[in-house]
Automatic annotation (TrEMBL):
Domain GHMP kinase N-terminal: 67-145
Protein's name in the database: 4-diphosphocytidyl-2-C-methyl-D-erythritol kinase
Catalytic activity as recorded in UniProt: 4-CDP-2-C-methyl-D-erythritol + ATP = 4-CDP-2-C-methyl-D-erythritol 2-phosphate + ADP + H(+)
UniProt entry keywords in alphabetical sequence: ATP-binding, Isoprene biosynthesis, Kinase, Nucleotide-binding, Transferase
Binding site for ATP: P95, V96, A97, A98, G99, L100, A101, G102, G103, S104, S105
Biological function: Catalyzes the phosphorylation of the position 2 hydroxy group of 4-diphosphocytidyl-2C-methyl-D-erythritol.
Keyword Methyltransferase found: no
Domain GHMP kinase C-terminal positions: 200-274
Length: 290
């Protein structure tokens, strides 16, 4: 096999809490991670020339070592002394710098894809270890499904599949840097922490309503004051039938969980009309692990 085409799926955080800060500046988290069916397409072709070449449909994305797919390919080449090169064609559909782990998922796809086309025979755990060098969310993007993430996001405990439901994804026309959000997080005794265990319990009981009512993201305390439009989008989703709506990751994307297709359509139409969002997609829960 000389080439492979893979989906790089986005994630949402059904819950996100920060419990401490490490000496290296990274934060200790407790998060409920969920893969959704919104994806980039990553094609990888083996080439005789040793170079890594990247092409993408988004003109503003770098195609050098600043692109996570380039970094992932370089890491695999160096680690496993691969002499050949790769040509990577990246078709982006996941909004960039949105809190949906698009870049991390693209990198995960390159690790998985190169493991296959170069027949390296690496187990998933090993790929996840390598992935952590590229970003805290990469191990989850390799595993997929539903999981409790601890540590800096890399200590993963699989959870049973989240109940299926329509998901509305709405990103306002602003971009947020994850680094900025973590650096500006201030936690004190008044800060409300989401109950991560309650969400995990609701998932185990397959109770969608309790998952929705338990949703919470401590990073909203940084991103929403800076971009109040996030709150407007959340309110609009809830007023139009969402079980609940919340910011994903460091934002600014808002997702809503819905009971059925009719509800999600109503909220989609309302948001489309409002002009509050630049990217608006209906999606759903993707439970299959890799
Ligand atoms: C907030 C989350 C929630 O899933 O997702 P996104 O909003 O990025 O999608 C993640 O914790 C983001 O993970 P990821 O985007 O892979 O992080 P990295 O590239 O490793 O780090 C980006 C920046 O965030 C900070 N960071 C990241 C993870 C973490 N647990 N603590 C941190 O303080 C790092 O210091 C770094 O400056
Ligand atoms: N393949 C990639 N896709 C998207 N962004 C990338 C990629 N490679 C590098 N980046 C850079 O990483 C930053 C964060 O990207 P992304 O993963 O989309 O966001 P988030 O961490 O919020 O989920 C962007 O500002 C972008 O310049």
């Amino acid at each position: 096999m000389d080439d492979i085409s893979l989906k790089a799926l986005a994630k949402i955080n059904l819950g996100l809490d920060v419990t401490g800060k490490r000496e290296d500046g990274y934060h200790e988290v407790r998060m409920i991670m969920q893969t959704i069916h919104l994806y980039d397409r990553v094609e990888i072709k083996k080439t005789k020339s040793p170079a890594i070449r990247v092409e993408t449909n988004l003109y503003y994305l770098p195609v050098n070592e600043d692109n996570l797919v380039y970094r992932a390919a370089k890491l695999m080449k160096d680690e496993f002394k691969i002499k050949e090169g790769v040509r990577i064609v990246l078709q982006k559909f996941i909004p960039v710098a949105a809190g949906l782990a698009g870049g991390s998922s693209d990198a995960a796809a390159v690790l998985v894809g190169m493991n296959r086309i170069f027949q390296l025979g690496l187990k998933q755990d090993r790929l996840m270890e390598i992935g952590l060098k590229l970003g805290a969310d990469v191990p989850f993007c390799i595993m997929r499904g539903t999981a409790l993430a601890e540590g800096i996001g890399e200590v993963l405990s699989p959870l049973p599949p989240m109940p299926k439901c329509p998901v509305l994804i709405a990103k306002p026309g602003v971009s947020v840097s994850t680094k900025f959000v973590y650096e500006n997080l201030r936690i004190n005794e008044y800060t409300k922490h989401p109950d991560i265990d309650k969400i995990a319990e609701a998932i185990k009981k397959k109770n969608l309503k309790d998952v929705a009512s338990g949703m919470g993201n401590i990073l909203e305390t940084v991103t929403i004051p800076k971009y109040p439009v996030i709150d407007e989008i959340k309110s609009m989703m809830i007023e139009n039938g969402a079980l609940n709506a919340m910011m994903s990751g460091s934002g600014p994307t808002v997702f809503g969980l819905f009971q059925g297709e009719k509800d999600v359509r109503r909220a989609y139409d309302a948001l489309k009309q409002s002009g509050l969002t630049r990217n608006l997609y209906t999606s759903d829960i993707h439970n299959n692990r890799r």
